[in-house]
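Hey team,

Sharing the Permease run so nobody has to redo it. Sequence (438 residues) first:
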Amino acid sequence: MSTAFTTSSRRTEVLAGISTFLATMYIIVVNPAILSQAGLPFSGVLTATVLLSFFCSLMMGLYARNPIVVAPGMGMNAFFTFTAVKGMGIRPEVALGAVFWAGMLFLLLSIFNIRSAIVRAIPQPLRYAVSAGIGLFITLIGFENARFIVANPATLVSIASFNDPIVLTFVFGLLLMSVLVVRDIPGGIIIGIILTTLAAWPIGRFWGDASAVNFGQKTLVNFQGIWSMPDFSMIGKLDLVGSLSWSLWPVIFAFAFTDLFDSLSTFVGVAEAGGLQDADGQPRNLNRSLLTDAVATTLAGLVGTSPGTAYIESAVGIAQGGRTGLTAIVAGFCFLPFLFLSPLLSIIPSIATAPALVLVGAFMMKPITRIEWDQLDDALPAFLALVLIPFSYSITQGLIWGFLLWTVIKVSIGKSREVPLGLWIVDIFCVLALASGH
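Structure output:
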C-alpha cells in the first residue's frame, strides 16, 4: 500500500471517513427531493446520487489521495431545478446535457492545468479568509439544521426558543461533543452523533413534533420498508445534441462558473484548515483533485443528476483526523449500501450532525490569525470574502467579491504587480458570473 495511506493510523482514517459520510449523507435524499421537482423520478435521481458519490469519492481517495468527499452539489441542484428547468422551461434531459458539457469544459481546463494556475494565483490572505469563511458557513448550516438560528422578520435572524425540544437536544449534543473533542476522545465526533441521535429518540414520542426529526418510525418496524431496489432509469437519459443549442450556452457557463468557484474554494479552504498543502504551500495533489472534480460533473450528466463537486462537509472528517485518501474511500463505500437501504437514512436526524458542523467551523478559523489585519490592502478583500460567504449563503459570492476588491485596491494604490495573470483570468470569470446573474 502507498505511503499516502500510512501518514496517520488506518483506524483514525476509517473513523474520519464515517464521520464525513454522516455529515454528507443528507444529500442522498435531499438531492432527489429537489430534482424531482424538475420532473425527474425521485428513485432514479437517488440511485444516480449514490453512484456519483461512490465512484467520485473513490476516485478522490485512490487517484487524488485527498480526504475529500465528492457528491452532487447543493445550490447546483436548485439552479438545475428552479432556474434552468422551471424558470427557463428547459427539458430535464436537455439540462442534464448542459451539465455534461459543463463537465467537459472543466475537463479541458483541468487537463491543460488552467484551473491549477487559477488556484495558484489566489493570494494567501484570501486563502486564509476563504477557509475561515467556509467555517462560518458550515457553522451557520449546523445552527440552521438544528433550528437554533431561525428567521425573524424584524431582525432577519434570531435564536430560537429554548422551549423547543429540537433546540434542547441540539444544545445537549453540542455540549457533549465539545467535551469529547476537547478531551481528545478517539472517535469523539461519531460518539457525539450517536448519543445525540439517541437523545433525539423521545422527540415525537413523548414531546415535540416527530416530523422535525423524521426518524421514519414506520420503516423501522417494517423490514420491507427499509429495502428498495435501485432505479437505473436516469442513466444515459441526457440530451447531448439538444443541450448544445446556442441558447443554452449561458446555462452551461452558469453551471461551469458556479462549480469552478465552489470547488476552488473547497480545496483551498480545506487545505488551509487541515494543513493539506504540498512543499510549495499549494493544496495537496491539486491537479488530480481538480480533475476528479471535473469528472464528477461530467459523470453527473451521464448518470442523471446535477453537477458533482467537492464537499465542504469533508472538513468534519479532517477534524476527526483524516489526512489521506483512505478517508474519502471509506466515505465513498458508506454511500454504496444506500442503493438498497435509502430509507434507513432517516435514523440519524440532522440535529445529530449539526453539533459536528458547528465545531468544524471553530476548527477552520485558525488560518484567520495569519492575515495581517494592519495591512489594509490585504485585510479588506480578505474580510469581504470572509463575511460574504456566510452572509450571502454562497461561497461563490464571497470569492467573487474578495477577488474583485483585491484587484481594484492593488491597482489603485500602485501595487498591480501583486495581481498575477492568473488572478486577472479569475476576475474575468467573476465578471461573467455576475453578468449571468449566478
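DSSP finds 18 helices and four strands in the chain.

Ping me if you want the raw files.
A.
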